UniProtKB/TrEMBL annotation:
It comes from Alicyclobacillus acidoterrestris (strain ATCC 49025 / DSM 3922 / CIP 106132 / NCIMB 13137 / GD3B). The keyword Hydrolase applies. Pathway: Amino-sugar metabolism; N-acetylneuraminate degradation; D-fructose 6-phosphate from N-acetylneuraminate: step 5/5. One of its GO terms (cellular component) is cytoplasm. This is Glucosamine-6-phosphate deaminase. Coiled coil: none annotated.
Length: 239
């Protein structure tokens, strides 16, 4: 694993955006695997700046990791709304080329299959990941088993508590989500994992330095041959 430590999340975001730029300019039909959460905002800000300076993204396809079940795309806390706000509304990726699971699909099993087919049709060139304080990637939560393909997941109490900051209160946080599975993540040709802040320091150490454990889902990234871990000084402080 290539580990890079920056002074600030903003510096780290600029570096991560430059890696994305390389993928976007070197492929005929680049496919970006995208993530949500506070961590990825500096990356999207830097990427939007690159687009404002002339980077063409009209040929880009995007696939997001996950979506809350029960939130319509126009719900302000849906991940579709997050992506619209922080990226899609600011760059010229054609709307039909941006994919997320549908959190209000009436048949969730069919929706998981549909999303697996979208992933198969659009092999991911680079997958962006944040990490939960419990080690989740996407919404692959700590468990005895990790699931390979897209699936419905019950969110852990810790994740519900952590993500409550984006809602009015904890009761409003959906209890379930649809997430890409770990095999889909590992099949990306390249992976960038970002983590910032002291509260991520211990889980980053566990994910990178201990063995592979299903109760630390991010540790499975140790199996991938092209992972860049982008940290600030705080999140790197336990390495
Ligand atoms: C959510 C997302 C994850 C993300 C995590 C960390 O639960 N499903 O993909 O990595 O939060 O969020 P943050 O970056 O806000 O710490």
């Amino acid at each position: 694993m290539n580990i890079r430590v920056f002074r600030t999340p903003s510096d780290a975001g600029i570096y991560a955006a430059s890696i994305l730029e390389r993928v976007v300019t070197s492929k005929e039909r680049p496919v970006l695997g995208l993530a949500t959460g506070g961590t990825v905002i500096p990356l999207y800000e830097a990427f939007v700046n690159l687009v404002r300076c002339g980077l063409d993204v009209s040929h880009v396809t995007t696939l997001n990791l996950d979506e809350y079940i029960g939130l319509a795309p126009d719900h302000p806390q849906s991940y579709r709304a997050f992506m619209n706000e922080h990226l899609f509304s600011k760059v010229g990726i054609p709307a039909e080329s941006t994919h997320l699971p549908n959190g209000i699909a009436s048949d969730l099993a069919a929706e998981c299959e549909r999303y697996n087919a979208v992933i198969r049709k659009n092999p991911i060139d680079i997958q962006i990941l944040g990490i939960g304080v419990n080690g989740h990637i996407g919404f692959n939560e700590p468990s005895h088993t990790l699931i390979t393909g897209t699936h419905v997941v019950n969110l852990s109490a810790e994740t519900i508590k952590m993500n409550a900051r984006f809602f009015q209160n904890e009761e409003e946080v959906p209890r379930q989500a649809i997430t890409m599975g770990v095999q889909s993540i590992l099949q990306a040709k390249q992976i960038i994992l970002l983590a910032f802040g002291e509260h991520k320091a211990e889980i980053i150490r566990e994910a990178l330095k201990d063995g592979i454990r299903t109760d630390v889902p991010a540790s499975i990234l140790q199996l991938h041959k092209d992972v860049t871990v982008i940290l600030d000084e705080q999140s790197a402080s336990h390495l």
